[in-house]
Amino acid sequence: MCDYQAILGAPELARDFRDSLRIAGVRAWEFDNLIGTQVPLAQATSVRLTRSPRVEMREGFDAYVQGLKQAGKSGRNILNKLRLLERDHGSVTFQQGVGESALLRQMLDWKARRFTADGKFPAWVGETLHHFLAQRGGPVTGVLSVLKAGESVVAIHFGVRVGRLHYYWFPAYDEAFAKYTPGWLLVWFLLKHLPELGCDTLDFGPGGEAYKEYFANAHREFGTGLIETSESMARLHRGYARMNETLRQSALAQRWVKPAVHWLRGRARAATPEKT
Q1: Which among 35, 142, 143, 166 could disulfide-bond with 199, CB atoms 3.0 to 4.6 Å apart, if both were Cys?
Q2: Phi, psi of 217 (to 5 degrees)
């Protein structure tokens, strides 16, 4: 549910996270997608910094598109898919700020079919999104957007708006329109109409999906890692991580050690009696 994690607390909390963990009775804290400025580098057992893609449109959509072209991204394929969709299914329209709960339920249904084992989200997911959809004021408001071709709903997105920032959160589309790359079309229209929300930034959140890097013209740093309260365990894990990285980068290890490990694992599995 959360693309980013953040530490909420008094400034002194950041001085020694390990003390805070000990007080809480926690032996280790494994964080994921923690905002980069909050990553406790000096105290981390292990940490990996990476970037989250976003689009910044300070000068409007047309200037943004020109920037894409200068970066070798013409958008030609997106526009061709748009023309094909219009030819086959009728005029394409985009509407945002929609308040229909039925469309939000449809979006969740499409999303759950693709990403959950039983095709359903827990009830609290829908309740959370409906809560934000109902917000018409305040610092955080939900924004429901729909892309149609003729009378058919092609794709739906639910995100949240915070000031001039729009978070790309729950996109989904009808699989029947998959050949038109509806996800890419949805992002194109979201960006085109972003100024109408009073926003100039669309944040995709962490993830290595191709469309995010295609549209992105900026990034935000975040970190993934581990902090342990036991210094001896932290040293052990750091040593293991260094050894593992050395083996990964060693041609000799790749040639001899890796096959040996696979062989030993195979022998261990063969020697283990099957459960009945």
Answers
A1: 166
A2: -130, 10
What type of residue sits at position 211?
Y
pLDDT at 255: 64
What is the full DSSP assignment across 143-200? Answer: EEEEEEETTEEEEEEEEEEETTEEEEEEEEE-GGGGGG-HHHHHHHHHHHTGGGGT--
Q: Which amino acid is at 180?
A: Y
Is the CB of residue 23 less than 8 Å from the CB of residue 226?
Answer: no
How many CA atoms lie within 13 Å of 61's alpha carbon, on the beta-carbon side?
A: 13
Residues in the chain: 276
- CATH no. for 59-199: 3.40.630
Helix (H) or strand (E) holding 228: strand 218-228
- CA distances for 31 relative to 51, 91, 119, 226, 228, angstroms: 15, 46, 28, 6, 11
Global confidence as pTM: 0.79
Helices and strands of the chain, counted as H and E runs: 10, 8
DSSP 217: S
Tokens of 99: 């308040």
Q: Is the pLDDT of residue 39 over 90?
A: no
Please write the tens of the pLDDT for every residue from 173-225: 999 999 999 999 999 999 999 999 999 999 999 888 999 999 999 999 999 88
Q: How confident is the model at residue 168 (pLDDT cuts 50, 70, 90)?
A: very high
